[in-house]
Write a structure and sequence with these properties.
Elements lengths: L11 E12 L2 E12 L3 E6 L5 H8 L7 E6 L2 E2 L4 H7 E5 L10 H11 L5 H10 L13 H14 L4 E5 L7 H18 L2 E5 L3 H7 L2 E6 L2 E7 H7 E8 L5 H4 L4 E7 L2 E7 L3 H9 L2 E8 L2 H11 L11
Helix pairs in contact: 4-5
The protein binds adenosine-5'-triphosphate.
Adenosine-5'-triphosphate (ATP) binds next to helix 1.
Length: about 325
Amino acid sequence: MTTNFDKALVSNVIETVEVSKVIDGQAILQNINFAVKDGSVHGLVGSNGAGKTTLLRLINGVYEASSGEIRVFGKTIIRDVANIRQRVHLVSADGAFYPGFRVQDLLHYASLLYDKWDETRAKDLIKVLELPLHQPIRKLSLGMKMQLRLAVALASRPDVLLLDEPTNGLDPVVRRQFLGLIVQEVAGTGLSVVFATHRLEELEAVADDISVLYRGRMVLSGSLEGFKSHYHEIVAVANTTIADHVWEHPSVLAVSSHGKIQSCIVNGDTSVLRQRLVKAGAVHVDEQPIKFEDLFRALMEKEGYTRDAILLS
Ligand SMILES: Nc1ncnc2c1ncn2[C@@H]1O[C@H](COP(=O)(O)OP(=O)(O)OP(=O)(O)O)[C@@H](O)[C@H]1O
């Protein structure tokens, strides 16, 4: 039986409802609710080992959920993996390749595998990515292999592209080209993308929505615009250290101090805190937009995720 996908009827191309994954008795993901809007780029970030790859593998049907439900285009995926892989393409550095194949052999193989294979698109991509058609795949560099994976993925004309740390190993010029291709594809074809990465500045440039995982739990999910309008950085300059209790407010996510300059990340209205800071002796209080990277760090710190530097003697 094949699933009859009807993209036109759904606004979320991917939905996970209370999804958990247990491997060898270890809870890898717990009660994950995650939704990807049609035609959007959804960034997936988190600490190392948070469960990003596992979530992508669940969506692509590599893994089966231990509990909960995964819907692709509104349909539960459980027993239709082959059909899903025609429409939901996972690109990751450890994806299987046939190292003895030449680039052109792989393209031929992919053309037989994918129903919607676009030969013209494949040739164009190989050309712009400057990939050597006659070279065995085992002789390609890490970055070239990733570019080949992207070319195969885009030429297979998926509805959803799952990218697992796709820009690892790419030089800055190729990385920019790679991101440009993704954005172009989303704008031109309505492709939806889930983009797992540690490069938060890349996500700020391309993502519509961002979800943050920490130790198998979803700690934040929403639109990048929404985060930017809700979270702000308050910077206070004071001649003395502002007492800890002044910063203690439910809206304050994290506080940091650099001598006379102290700052914090605030969720929501900043007016109460600003007044408290002035009362506590701040001579200058300023509010500025937040970078997602700073919000991410503050969230991780709040979750208790910190690392000390290794001191070498
Ligand atoms: N097949 C497996 N068997 C046992 N444990 C696994 C397996 N796959 C993943 N894990 C564990 O699940 C957790 C989440 O791993 P996952 O690769 O999904 O995280 P990630 O967020 O992609 O990490 P990173 O950013 O470091 O790539 C880790 O603790 C990992 O060791």
